[in-house]
Design a protein that fits this description.
heterodimer; A: about 70% helix; B: alpha+beta; five-stranded antiparallel sheet
């Protein structure tokens, strides 16, 4: 296929965020809020850090039983949606295209720009090194949550998983840290989306048409 | 099954007692409902997620789905990790649906274990008779649904041995437990037959103390703490779902770990 015909195809409708990505993104957004707010309720029943309690107004479910019900219902949606997202990201080459490569040089440059609030974002279709890194970190944190969650849910049947985290309390701590990473990401992600509302609109409408791929990046598998 | 703490054969009080349980249950439900509405108000979502019968129905269905998945995940031959004696917590941690000061110790001398349901020999057992049964010791982790845990050292007759001895139908679906404090638990037969499921009488090689279930409690390594009834007074083998105090209030029934 020639460059021109790829371009023609793109012009017909290849957008920054294809429809499956948008659907999975918003399912994930709602499910993450359910998992985090029900998880805070579960945490409050036996806190890990004596100074940290989550206010009941921020938890979904009025007491322990519904907290757990929400969490153990939400997990199915989170895992199925997450698996679909990973499969899509790898199969279409989206991960490789959007998240790689991350070069140290770009990273240093972009962190400097970001800290001085000068990071360029005119072109939504290209992620900067900071963005790429954060997206990879949050995907890994999501995977950590599933693995540590399984270790907490089934410490006998999946005792090998639990042992990965030391013991049951180690798995709880890892699950808490994973939540903290995702929650921190969420705050930053929402704040930046609100600062550059075009990004928010793009996740609803699909966003700008993407440029034809450069030959060096290869075609999607 | 009436509690040991209640007169069994007094004419009118029996009815009154029945009502009292009902009233208590109704009060409890009212309280929960109140809590639900408060939570919903606090959420200020406007869509009243927490009070919606439809939402509760969906959550209940997910919990039933989880029961089935958990039964599939349960491997009857998979043993829970065990630990050295040096890690045993003495005394263990108390837990019940009330505080320790409200505990009513069971009189071991007059205590009997009643049997019901699909069982060949339903004669009740005394403490002394149970002591003659073969004993097994396990040092396992107790994990509470709240998130805390400790390592305990329990001994008693394996549940499987006991069920075989009384001629129980081992193909039945459920084992139901009733306790001196009116607590109830039901578990699946597969868990009852697991080698690390005991009817425990001892903790750290000594007679189990009152707060931890004297004279008889269940200790299964493959379920959360609340599925381990203490002060057991009756065991029923059955195919129809027996009551379960916490599961009936919304906790996951299987609660296998």
């Amino acid at each position: 296929m020639s460059e021109a015909s790829i371009g023609a195809k793109a012009a017909r409708g290849r957008r920054l965020h294809p429809l499956p990505i948008r659907i999975m993104h918003w399912i994930n957004a709602v499910t993450m809020l359910i998992m985090i707010s029900s998880g805070w309720g579960i945490y409050d029943d036996e806190v890990i850090f004596g100074f940290l309690f989550f206010p009941p107004s921020l938890t979904i479910g009025a007491w322990a039983a519904p907290h757990l019900q929400w969490h153990f219902a939400g997990m199915w949606i989170l895992v199925l949606n997450g698996l679909a997202y990973l499969a899509y990201g790898f199969a279409t080459g989206r991960f490789r295209e959007k998240l790689l490569p991350i070069r140290l040089k770009d990273m240093i440059h972009d962190v400097r720009e970001a800290l001085s609030l000068h990071l360029a974002h005119e072109d939504l279709t290209v992620y900067n090194a900071v963005q790429k890194t954060l997206y990879i970190i949050v995907i890994l944190a999501g995977i950590l949550q599933v693995v540590s969650g399984l270790a907490i849910w089934k410490p006998v049947q999946f005792s090998g998983l639990t042992a990965l985290f030391g013991d049951f309390q180690g798995a709880r701590l890892a699950h808490f840290i994973g939540m903290s990473v995702i929650f921190g990401f969420l705050l930053l992600h929402v704040a930046l989306a609100l600062l550059v509302p075009r990004t928010l609109w793009a996740m609803l409408s699909g966003g700008p048409l993407v440029a034809p791929k450069r030959p060096t990046q290869g075609a999607p598998r | 099954m009436t509690s040991l703490f209640r007169p069994t054969r007094v004419p009118d009080p029996d009815i009154l007692h029945e009502h009292r349980t009902l009233i208590r249950r109704i009060e409890r439900r009212g309280l929960l409902r109140g809590a639900f509405s408060l939570g919903a108000l606090a959420m200020l979502t406007g869509c009243d997620l927490e009070n919606s019968a439809a939402v509760n129905d969906v959550l209940g269905r997910f919990s039933e789905l989880n029961d089935r998945v958990e039964a599939l995940i349960f491997d009857p031959n998979k043993l829970a990790p065990t630990y050295p004696e040096s890690m045993v917590l003495k005394p263990p941690r108390f837990n019940a649906f009330y505080e320790i000061q409200d505990l009513k110790p069971v009189d071991g001398a007059s205590w009997k274990l009643e049997l019901a349901g699909l069982i060949g020999d339903k004669r009740p057992w005394t403490k002394e008779q149970i002591a003659t049964l073969p004993e097994k010791e396990i040092i396992i982790r107790h994990i509470c649904v709240e998130g805390w845990d400790y390592i305990g050292q329990w001994s008693g007759v394996p549940m499987r041995t006991f069920l075989e001895r009384i001629g129980a139908d081992l193909t039945a679906k459920y084992i139901g437990f009733r306790c001196a404090d009116d607590y109830t638990v039901s578990i699946d037969m597969a868990t009852a037959l697991h080698p690390q499921t005991l009817l425990a009488t001892k903790y750290a090689r000594e007679q189990m103390a009152d707060p931890f279930g004297y004279p008889l409690r269940l200790r299964t390594a493959t379920k959360l703490g609340f599925k381990n009834p203490k002060w057991i007074t009756a065991i029923e083998v059955t195919n129809s779902y027996p009551p379960d105090y916490w599961a009936d209030l919304g906790f996951n029934w299987h609660s296998g770990i």
